[in-house]
């Protein structure tokens, strides 16, 4: 027994030498061999547990020997849009979670879920307890169509529809009617294409993913055969990627309709000029042009994707408050520069039949605390992520530069803002002195009875979801209620 | 003797490898299994199990001791996003992402999607000569490179470039530009 314990101790000590941050194990075998972090370490608060929150945490932990990171997340579960935004058939994108799990095992990292900054704890309180507070809260404010009839039945925002099939608890009871034949999606970004693909993809291909089971069952019963994607501008302004588009158009049972009139000489000339910065757009538009020219006589097609450009929604027509059709104002492109061209109204109105409408027109930023955070033209005022000089307040990710960009952009922004934080940290520590970090905040919550979800609690939820999923031959069966998630804390 | 060499070799491995935490390497070799830290660490409390585990780790890593396979290594270099030069030993056939992981180069946010062509964080810039010798990228790689910041004419995804003997002494550069280059 003594020899066995000696072996465990020496092996643990050797692991400390090999790797500064020791992996946290279920049995906590080696945790007590790690030196306690001194109380006077800089303490950083990250608000939000999505890609930018975890990426900046990785940057900070890697480049500073002793700082502590406390991550606050308003939901009981982490990972933000990776969990609730990325489509169920894009599981590879979610591989980034493996890296985030590894980061979470650091003894210098703590996770506090089910705490909403701005509601459960004020930004001022955080700012008084931490040397640096970094907002990674994403872009939460949905844009509205702002047209008559938008409150009619069977009209949804992308947040609602995507949240519905991705298991976001507040949208599980949505009454989504898929019995009609025509779906109109306003918007031509990757989110719009995700929604279109969920409606058109053979549902057998989704059954083993982490799609919400009830949503999947509803999609299995869907009668939607025609999906219209409506873009306000032309092909060269289309926000989606060629890959996302081809994921639908390459499906064997889909026919694709694209109007060739939008690919005039100006557009075709633009495609011929080599421009690396525009390469994504050029490859997308070349692909669209190819699809437009092909008369895709697909005898086995039972569904159709139509991409309509240069149309702005005007009015929703209803029958008994249920959406029946949508009127659009048609535009034409005005300027010579096809990339910068502005749409101009033609006064022509078109009506498209519509049984389901989903608006995927993007998100705006909204400051958590408008009194403290300077906000202009819909964006947080910041320089390299630093919001206020000398104050230790930062922003990273979509809440910083708007709701666009993919994982690589979150990573890049995290590195930039992370560098800013690290360069300010010495000054902030000298200015603010030793701070208690989460201690007072968590004590306050314990006294108030608020349930905090720690990382170990999330692992219980995670394990439950994966185990439940296995029984149904799925990657994961998500817990669909916040109360049920919180019940794991007490179990 | 073989067992002793396994044990000595295991003690020289970094803990992340022992735990099989480098999932990207597993993925890029197209292997279907993944190890987890708990599976590996649970079994190391007994010396016999330690030896068994190290030999399993070696088999997963395709780690060999035969002399002829020593010639399967080339020396390559990486310049990281801060301009610092890193030397690395690369096994012919491995991807550049494998090399970064195996050499513990620890580049931030590199290979986030673990080699599944779902992001562009393993973006590297090659010299023209090396770039020209490579096969044309797949459509998936083009699609992800489209979204990469600092895209150049000789850019590739590190998870798709396989090391060859001709890459001896070649330098691969991570892009410094981190602002959104797409601009449209």
UniProtKB/TrEMBL annotation, chain B:
Database matches in InterPro entries: 2Fe-2S_ferredoxin-like_sf (IPR036010), 2Fe-2S_ferredoxin-type (IPR001041), Adrenodoxin-like (IPR001055), Adrenodoxin_Fe-S_BS (IPR018298), Beta-grasp_dom_sf (IPR012675)
Cofactor(s), by name: [2Fe-2S] cluster
Domain spans labelled 2Fe-2S ferredoxin-type: 72-167
Gene3D superfamilies per the UniProt record, alphabetical: 3.10.20.30
Entry-linked CDD domains: fer2
Signal sequence region: none
Record key words, sorted: 2Fe-2S, Iron, Iron-sulfur, Metal-binding
Protein known as: 2Fe-2S ferredoxin-type domain-containing protein
